[in-house]
Design goal:
The chain is an alpha+beta fold. It is built from 5 helices and 22 strands. Helices cover about 20% and strands about 35% of the residues. It binds 2-acetamido-2-deoxy-beta-D-glucopyranose (4 copies). One 2-acetamido-2-deoxy-beta-D-glucopyranose binds next to strand 8.
Length: about 425
């Protein structure tokens, strides 16, 4: 038993010794030769090198460690003799490479060879002339070539003119996606006719892309060299989801139901979730609801006018950051005039009735007082006759005063009657 174990362990030791390359690899690793850096596109360089022809390669996997020194440090290994690198090249680019053996760290790596790109001459320009605050967004649009691919991306970028850019400055925007580079054809201008925004109705950008978009804005002027501007944008971050389409809403009784379609987007319907915003315009009350499906119904307590809007976002599981789209255009449901006007009518009617009642009771009170102040005199005829008779004897005839007295008594009686009614 012990003998068997001994033989087994001996066998594994021999096996391990066989696998170790340094048992066979006796020479030192030589650095690569002819290392070059070439600009191959906007914000894109190609690094190339060759193994030294004197390098012994028998039974080993030669590989290379690439180190980017500027503008941004990076470190990686490859078995290729070239490597592509996407980065901003404003401030030049420098990198080093050394020979290693793939997955074998006991053999010391070769020395480094380095190369660099100086700040490109066309990146020199007067300070303050380059654009600032570049922002770009992409939007899915229905493709002109439905059969090839149903959706394409549009691209819109805006920027501000450099504060020291001469008045005659003109800016030009380019984007690169993969191997495609395009110059903008549709610019918007400021009051000095300088381009300040750009619109690509359709681009080569893949509608589900997660890569990076390179944007380059250079310019020209008779009075100054315009400093170009480069930016790399993560497509995930700049993609603006479209709002849902065909939003419809209706009220049946007190049930408000809303339907909509998924936005124009390469993402399938299962990737979307939504938010519905219902605004009761009369009460100025807003309610929002999140949901996974594209219909929604809700019991409302009054059927006055409501506005309804919906927005959409792609779930993070579908590979997006889940930014909300803009709200859809508001659509209106419910009665605008009727409900409030009937209420107003009732209020006005009620106050009118109250007013009339109040006035009537006031009048009656005044009348009551009147009757109390000047109670009907039990026997006015003789008194008045005497009064008038004594003071104005020659002028007034007795028949005239009699009529006056009678009419007064009648009026007082009538008012007493009304008083008793209320
Ligand atoms: C390196 O470059 C030189 C000159 O361009 C060329 O003659 C030589 O063949 C290259 N070496 C290798 C290994 O490609
Ligand atoms: C432009 O960007 C700078 C910082 O990047 C910010 O301070 C400034 O407010 C921005 N200007 C405008 C008009 O957005
Ligand atoms: C701007 O950049 C593009 C792309 O690199 C180049 O073709 C063009 O000549 C440049 N224009 C100016 C005015 O520098
Ligand atoms: C929206 O409605 C129109 C007309 O009713 C229809 O042609 C279109 O296909 C609908 N859009 C979607 C995305 O369903």
């Amino acid at each position: 038993m012990a003998a068997v174990l001994l033989i087994l362990s001996g066998a594994t030791a021999i096996l391990q010794a066989d696998l170790l390359p340094d048992k066979k690899f006796h020479s030192l690793l030589l650095p690569p030769v002819n290392f070059t850096i070439k600009i191959t596109g906007l914000a894109k360089v190609l690094l190339q090198w060759e193994p030294d022809p004197r390098q012994e390669r028998r039974d080993v996997n030669l590989a290379y460690r690439v180190r980017i020194n500027a503008p941004q440090e990076d470190d990686y290994e490859t078995m290729d003799t070239e490597s592509q690198c996407v980065t901003i090249l404003h401030k030049g680019f420098s990198a080093s490479v050394q020979t290693i053996i793939w997955d074998e760290y006991s053999v010391p790596a070769s020395s480094w060879v380095s190369a660099e790109l100086k700040e490109p001459p066309d990146h020199l320009g007067s300070p303050g002339t380059s654009i600032v605050n570049l922002t770009c967004t992409t939007n899915a649009v229905v493709s002109n070539y439905m059969h090839l691919r149903p959706y394409q991306m549009s691209l819109r970028c805006t920027w501000l003119v450099g504060q020291d850019a001469p008045e005659d400055t003109q800016y030009f925007l380019y984007y690169r996606y993969g191997s495609w580079t395009e110059e903008c054809q549709e610019y918007s201008k400021d009051t000095l006719k300088r381009n300040i925004a750009c619109w690509f109705p359709r681009t080569f950008i893949n509608s589900k892309a997660r890569g990076r978009l390179a944007v380059h804005v250079n310019g020209s002027s008779k009075h100054a060299a315009i400093k170009p501007f480069d930016q790399l944008l993560a497509l995930q971050d700049i993609d603006q989801e479209n709002p849902p389409v065909n939003v419809t809403a209706g009220i049946e009784g007190t049930r408000l139901s809303i339907q909509w379609e998924k936005p124009v987007s390469a993402f399938p319907i299962s990737c979307f979730h939504y938010e519905v915003k219902i605004h009761n315009i009369r009460k100025d009350y807003v309610q929002t609801e999140k949901m996974m499906i594209n219909t929604f119904s809700w019991i409302i307590d009054d059927v006055s006018k409501h506005s309804v809007q919906v927005r959409a976002a792609v779930h993070t599981v579908c590979g997006k950051k889940g930014h909300w789209s803009e709200w859809s255009q508001p659509i209106y449901v419910g009665n605008d005039e009727q409900a409030p006007s009937t209420e107003w009518f009732i209020i006005v009617l009620m106050s009118a009735i109250c007013f009339v009642l109040l006035m009537l009771s006031l009048i009656c009170r005044i009348c009551h007082l009147w009757t109390k102040l000047f109670p009907p005199v039990p026997a006015p005829k003789s008194n008045i006759k005497d009064l008038f008779g004594s003071t104005n004897y020659e002028k007034a005839g007795s028949s005239e005063t009699e009529i006056e007295a009678i009419s007064y008594v009648e009026e007082a009686g009538l008012e007493n009657l009304e008083d008793s009614v209320f």
